[in-house]
Amino acid sequence: MNRIYFDHSATTPVDERVVIAMNEFMLEKFGNPSSIHSFGREARQAVEEAREAVAGLISAAPEDVFFTSGGTEADNLALLGYAELHRKQGDHVITSAIEHPAILNTADELERLGFRVSRIQPDRFGLILPDKVAAVIEPNTIRFLSCM
Length: 148
Fold this sequence. Notes:
mainly alpha, 3-stranded parallel β-sheet, 5 helices
């Protein structure tokens, strides 16, 4: 029986090249990269080499590349971090009403922190139309839009 997995947004098979590259760190060099012992230093060096490689692939500075444990942590870092960093520019954030719960829950947290959040409803086809976005932009809207 053939099975087809349709939820590659939630998780996906690991590329064989990644498995090969990570194998030694999962079995032998499993140190905490924040530790100062030799296992930690080896792990830290590998993380920094990976950061530089990723930065090179996307034409970014290595210090601008952050690794997270998954999508929810990345969403939190992006939305909360950006909003706090730009709080002086405004207190209004825009998202769609059909975002992943990681974004919607983070938007709720932003409201608890004093931000105002506009949640745009999709049209009957599930689309977020640009004119609906434009209609809620205010002078104090932070230049960040989260929209799937």
